[in-house]
Design brief:
- The protein is an alpha/beta fold and 407 residues long.
- It has two domains: 291 residues, 4-Layer Sandwich (Purple Acid Phosphatase, chain A, domain 2), CATH 3.60.21; 108 residues.
- It has eleven helices and 21 strands.
- An eight-stranded mixed β-sheet has the order 7-8-9-10-11-14-16-15, covered by helices on one side. Strands 6-5-4-1-17-18 form a six-stranded mixed β-sheet.
- Strand 8 and strand 9 form a beta hairpin.
- The termini are far apart.
- The structure holds manganese (II) ion.
- The site of manganese (II) ion has 6 residues, from loops.
């Protein structure tokens, strides 16, 4: 049985003022092409399908078009679980309709999908909270899926029926997985776990999380789940949440974060992006291949001390998104800023780094500057504090405020 594992699509996510929708469209097309080329039977999407609880119409549209193509009229099973960025109810809402296409949505760790059968041959044979057994068209063996969408610690405890705060969350989860695996996962089928949570190998350093994930994350406070908590019968663990592709463990089975298909923050600068193709057979070790994605822009952090050199580089490298740091002795003039922005359309942030800045200069000189206009004084003040001249928008705003004062 061939399975494609992807996660963290974050559809609708922007990079500051830049939309990423065109890139998302391209990379999802690429993923559909890979699914066809590799002739996969099953696609697993391990959470964070959308970037927000209320995604835009365009993002929702792209999501369903992609899933429809992946499902190929119910010939391929597509199973998507909710991540911490997804609204579980919203994810599950179109389920009856999606099911007819071979697409299964799982919003909560205790969600249940009742058995059904499609004309294509796709069939859910039995199910339990957080578990389904599937017959997939053109695959000889049955697929058993243990599914753990994201839930915060409190909810997860409630779902798993153990609200004792003294009991470690990962132990509760381990017991739940163990119990499910013992009941359903023998060596006569393919057994896979898909989860959106923070997992690490016991005793190893914690993998770094995406910059904008830290406040929400952690499945429960500071408690990661360990890869030794995975039941023996499981042959592959398809994880979502971390945006860098990484193999957490490969001792008894591969435990892998496929990572996001695009770099979404400068914390992911210069990363290669992947999907994972798994080849699994009953009773054998699963094999996997990482397939690098070609579409989507790179995010690069660049630092220059010379504006001419920076402009030259920007013209030579029009494709990536850039976080640009300009080091200068005194300040970055508005002329230089303009030159930089005109040289490249993808400058996301421009950080001026001033070497010899002395905030006292302004105070010391301000007494003898009374002949200057308010505009000029504001420019001087801004320059001394920020190391650059205020832009036109800010100047206009200042003038507006000033004119109101004068009234
Ligand atoms: Mn996440």
């Amino acid at each position: 049985m061939r399975i494609l594992h992807t996660s963290d699509w974050h559809l609708g996510k922007r990079l500051e003022s830049f939309s990423r929708l065109d890139e998302q469209q391209e990379v999802l097309n690429e993923i559909c092409d890979i699914a066809e080329k590799e002739q996969v039977h099953v696609v697993l999407i391990s959470g964070d399908l959308f970037d927000t609880f209320n995604p835009s119409t365009e993002a929702v549209d792209l999501f369903y078009r992609t899933l429809k193509r992946l499902a190929n009229n119910g010939k391929r099973a597509v199973i998507a679980i909710a991540g911490n960025h997804d609204s579980p109810d919203r994810i599950e809402a179109p389920d009856p309709l999606a099911r007819e296409c071979g697409i299964l949505f799982v919003g909560y760790p205790n969600s249940t999908i009742n058995p059904f059968k499609l004309d294509s041959g796709l069939e859910v044979i039995q199910s339990e909270q957080g578990f389904i057994e599937l017959k997939v068209p053109e695959a000889t063996e049955l697929l058993r899926l243990i599914l753990t969408p994201y839930a915060n610690e409190f909810r997860l405890r409630t779902f798993l029926g153990n609200e004792d705060p003294e009991e470690e969350l990962r132990m509760i989860l381990k017991e739940k997985w163990e119990e499910t695996a013992n009941r359903f996962c023998d060596n006569k089928g393919v057994n896979i776990l898909s989860a959106h949570l923070f997992m690490m190998k016991e005793g190893e350093e914690q993998p770094e999380e995406p910059e904008d994930e830290k406040p929400v994350l952690y499945i429960g406070g500071a408690q990661p789940v360990f890869s030794n908590d995975i039941p023996e019968a499981v042959q592959y663990v398809a994880l979502g949440h971390l945006h860098r592709k990484q193999i957490i463990d490969n001792n008894h089975c591969p435990v892998i974060y496929s990572g996001s298909p695009l770099a979404y923050s400068f914390g992911e600068a210069n990363q290669d992006k992947f999907v994972v193709c798994i080849n699994a057979e009953a009773g054998k070790n699963a094999e996997f291949t990482e397939i690098q994605l070609e579409k989507g822009k790179r995010l690069l952090r660049k630092r220059f001390e010379d504006v001419d050199v920076a402009v030259e580089w920007l013209i030579q490298n029009p494709d990536p998104f850039v976080e640009l740091t300009m080091v200068s002795e005194t300040y970055l003039s508005s002329t230089d800023r303009k030159r930089l922005y005109e040289a490249h359309e993808g400058i996301v942030t421009l950080i001026p780094e001033v070497l010899h800045q002395n905030p006292d200069d302004f105070e010391a000189s301000s007494n003898i500057e009374l002949s200057k206009s308010m505009d000029e004084l504001f420019k001087d003040f801004f320059l001394s504090r920020k190391g650059q001249e205020p832009n036109d928008r800010l100047m206009n705003l200042f003038k507006e405020v000033l004119s109101e004062e004068e009234l």
